Amino acid sequence: MYRYLLFHKPYDVLCQFTDDGSNGVRRTLKDYIPISGVYPVGRLDRDSEGLLLLTNHGSLQHRLSDPKFQHPRTYWVQVERTPDAVALKQLRQGVMIQGTQTRPAIVTLLTEAPTLPPRDPPIRFRKTVPTAWLELTLTEGRNRQVRRMTAAVNFPTLRLVRVAIAHLQLTGLVPGQWRDLTLAELHPLQDLCR
């Protein structure tokens, strides 16, 4: 039987079920999800937070992870300083990271900070350096892509929260909480595998 779970990954949690490298000191998905045989669709870095989809449905995992299918993923990104029109245009058109151009992104400068639970530990605060929030929607998932993109336009990422994968939303989950997908959420995903 296939399982489909949504999980709000907290900061400082590895996006895997085991941690062979630190004698069990670092938190992993096993510390939160007591279900065996499910695996993350894509990854979130240890220092990123937010929505993670887990499943034991291999073909769905492939369809959502493979960049050729271009499934959107949306992030709220807190950056140092306020990006100007030039930086926003560069992000929208795609930037060079690791010698390759990123795909165009949908980028919005948010007028106010999104409502999120506080991060533990909080981001560094500097009185003289303001911060801003962006909403970025990408259709590819390179390693540390959002962080590398904002750094490429000189607005380093301070906090990164994935809030959507395709039609699935982070809404209603607190950090460390997981739940099964509803039937309404599941149907569009099943259509991908037909």
Which descriptors would you attach to this protein?
Alpha-Beta Plaits, nine-stranded mixed beta sheet, 2 domains, 194 residues, alpha+beta, 11 strands, two-stranded antiparallel sheet
Can you offer a commentary on this structure?
This protein is an alpha+beta fold and 194 residues long. It has two domains: 1-69 and 171-194, Alpha-Beta Plaits (2-Layer Sandwich), CATH 3.30.70.580; 72-165, Alpha-L RNA-binding motif (Alpha-Beta Plaits). 18% of the residues lie in helices and 27% in strands. The protein has four helices and eleven strands. Strands 1, 2, 3, 4, 7, 8, 9, 10 and 11 form a nine-stranded mixed beta sheet that branches. A two-stranded antiparallel ribbon has the order 5-6. It is globular and about 50 Å long. It starts with a strand and ends with a helix.
Helices and strands in order, then pairings?
Layout: E1 4-9, E2 39-40, E3 49-55, H1 58-65, E4 73-80, H2 85-93, E5 96-97, E6 100-101, E7 106-109, E8 131-138, H3 145-152, E9 157-165, E10 168-169, E11 178-180, H4 183-192
Parallel strand pairs: 3-9
Antiparallel strand pairs: 1-3, 1-11, 2-3, 4-8, 4-9, 5-6, 7-8, 9-10
First-to-last CA distance? 17 Å
* Structural class based on helices, strands and sheet pairing: alpha+beta
- What would you report as the Rg, rounded to the nearest angstrom? 17 Å
Shape summary: globular
CATH architecture label of the largest domain: 2-Layer Sandwich
CATH class of the largest domain: Alpha Beta
Helical element count?
4
Q: Which residues sit in consecutive blocks of at least 5 with pLDDT less than 50?
A: none
Question: How many independent structural domains?
Answer: 2
Helix proportion of residues, in percent? Answer: 10-25%
Beta strand %: 25-35%
